[in-house]
Amino acid sequence: MKRFKERKADYHKAVIKLQEALNEKETEIIIDGVLHRFEFTFELAWKSMKDYLEYTGVVEKTGSPRETLQNAYQYNLINDGEEWINMMLARNSLSHLYDEEKSREIYVKIKEKYIKLLKDLDNKFDEL
Question: Are 49 and 68 in contact (CB under 8 A)?
């Protein structure tokens, strides 16, 4: 439980920092910062879900982010499993992305969709 609580607190801070970056005027450096914060926040999100699912005994051991997201959806930790998978794919593509147009498309998705999903999970963790 200790690891989940620590990671949950880190995740909460990361969501706040991501939202702060999204509130800034869109400049190239701000967009790059948002993309970096998004990668970090997503990593904390799925690892926090993993910790929670393992701690509660819902699953004995989860593996990949995809498996964790599927289990989180199945056990109502997240509501939109398909969008979480899309978010995971967007996060994965950022690691190997050198296409500015594609990275800007991901930025728009973060601003329009993904931040809400990340906040919803943060709120869910507060309820637990």
Answer: yes
Where helices occur in the chain by DSSP H, the ranges are 2-23, 28-55, 65-74, 81-95, 100-109, 115-127
Domain boundaries, the chain: 2-127
Contacts of 88 (CB under 8 A, 6+ apart): 42, 46, 65, 66, 69
User: Model pTM greater than 0.90?
Assistant: yes
User: Which residues of the chain are under the pLDDT cut of 70?
Assistant: 97
Distance CA 123, CA 128 (A): 9
Using DSSP's 3-state secondary structure scheme, residue 81 falls into helix
d(CA 28, CA 6): 32
2-127 fold: Four Helix Bundle (Hemerythrin (Met), subunit A) (1.20.120)
Tokens representing residue 118 in the block: 């990340």
Q: What is the pLDDT of residue 97?
A: 65
Q: Is the dihedral of CA 85, 7, 79, 104 positive or negative?
A: negative
